[in-house]
Design brief:
Number of helices: 2
Radius of gyration: 14 Å
Distance between the termini: 31 Å
Largest sheet: none
Helix content: over 70%
Low-confidence stretches: none
Strand content: under 5%
Structural class: mainly alpha
Order of helices and strands: HH
Number of domains: 1
Amino acid sequence: MPNTKQDISKTEEIDSIDSYFECITACSIGAAGEECVTRCVEVHLKDDSI
């Protein structure tokens, strides 16, 4: 059976990581970039189950 719950969860995890890397790529280098990267982590990688 394709697209099991585990497969969907893994796909969502990969999508979050891809989105994170796209986000940090758009950040500038320097102090403003640190805030940008922090925001990328909060938006794309923060675990909602905590």
